[in-house]
């Protein structure tokens, strides 16, 4: 075997991935080939240096305690005792009276406010759109945190234009955007990150088909919050699982523009 | 109820020794303390929930690292990273390495800080392979399992990742040498 061939296997040798007889043959070759020996030595030293450099971060004892507590609590929730004696099961039951009250309120709402159902359906559809777009293999078609890149990208792709605020110094980060369709209307789907959550901002031309009249909405079943408003004939809808306050903050940043 | 409690104890016995390594890896991936902490916490919670689906006798460490990495990929930073990588042309072909002496020695002779900086600046698909191989000292087959890619891909990414490190560090060395010459003038 030539030196070039040997040297192409030096990674595998250093990583201990050669079969024992191959490793033996390599050592035999390197014993009388200073070139291959020095490459193998340098690679071994490089590997050691990377190992030392790579052992860089140590978790805090606080994190260890938090993770342990989290695991033990979750096992207990499943009705299993790890540290403490079993609790009466009734404690872990959902608060039925509250759930019943919610059902009654919801029924009353549907009865008294005609049309509400349809409107929240529209919003639910947008919540679905938020989930399906984020779950797709290409959640964003234009990847950029720069509003001056994202905004022009939509030119010619949607039949309107909109402004994006500068998010510097806010907890929100623009991730990118994509074209989306809602009730056969093309629109912009912008994605923002907030901590580890994603927020969708949909922008459509405000048409009666959108049939959205409420300004905010919380879907208890899916735990999504929505905020919506119109500006200059455009309908903006924010959808996310972040809390309503954070959503309101992003809404006012977008509205200020 | 007993089996669940026993299962939990078995999980802790297997998983806690990996705690430090998982945190170190999470921090290298996310480059952020808070995010790494969240990643580790989520990984342990997910792994415990899914522990019954773990096949005994298979590689538990690879299983944990895979959960951590998948959790990272769906996190904000991970999603951004993944999208960036998708936009780049990912080179997967065989790597031809020429062993010039100064470049070969670049990693071993770099300072710890310079090496850490160079690792940090590697694209995540190379960074993770190099760390799993050299820091966690995983076998190629184990790395392939963590990343859900063929062994050949592990080998080519590893070769390319190391090559990028050598290039970055020898370029930096050349730069420092030149600036020293300029200082002397």
Structural class of chain B: mainly alpha
Q: What is the strand content of chain A?
A: 15-25%
Q: What is the CATH superfamily label of the largest domain in chain B?
A: Winged helix-like DNA-binding domain superfamily/Winged helix DNA-binding domain
Instruction: Quickly count the domains of chain A.
Output: 2
Strand arrangement within the widest β-sheet of chain A reads 1-2-3-4-7-6-5
Biggest interface, and residues per chain?
A-B, 56 and 57 residues
Question: Distance N terminus to C terminus of chain A?
Answer: 69 Å
Number of strands of chain B: 0
Rg over C-alpha atoms of chain B, rounded to the nearest angstrom? 19 Å
Shape of chain A: elongated
Helix content of chain A: 40-55%
Q: What's the mean pLDDT score of chain A? A: 79
Decide which structural class fits the backbone of chain A: alpha+beta
Secondary-structure element order of chain A, N to C: HHHHHHHEHEEEEEEH
The topology string of helices and strands of chain B comes to HHHHHHHHHHH
Name the overall outline of chain B. elongated
Largest sheet of chain B: none
The CATH superfamily label of the largest domain in chain A reads: MucB/RseB, C-terminal domain
As residue ranges, the low-confidence spans of chain A are 79-94, 110-119
Sequence stretches where pLDDT stays below 50 over 5 or more residues of chain B:
none
Question: In short, what is this structure?
Answer:
The complex is a heterodimer of chains A (257) and B (185). With 257 residues, chain A is α+β, with helices and mostly antiparallel strands. Chain A is 46% helix and 20% strand.
What does this structure look like?
The complex is a heterodimer of chains A (257) and B (185). Chain A is of the alpha+beta class and 257 residues long. Chain A has helices at residues 3-8, 10-14, 20-31, 34-54, 61-77, 96-112, 116-135, 147-153, 244-255, and strands at 142-143, 172-182, 185-194, 197-205, 216-219, 224-231, 234-240. Chain A folds into two domains: 3-54, Arc Repressor Mutant, subunit A, CATH 1.10.10; 115-255, MucB/RseB, C-terminal domain (Phosphorylase Kinase, domain 1). In chain A, strand 2 and strand 3 (185-194) form a beta hairpin. The model of chain A is unreliable at 79-94 and 110-119 (pLDDT under 50). Chain B has 185 residues and is an all-alpha fold. Chain B is 76% helix and 0% strand. Chain B is built from eleven helices and no strands. Chain B has helices at 2-15, 19-30, 33-49, 60-73, 76-87, 101-104, 106-109, 112-120, 124-135, 140-147, 151-184. The longest helix of chain B is centred in the C-terminal third of the chain and has 34 residues, at 151-184.
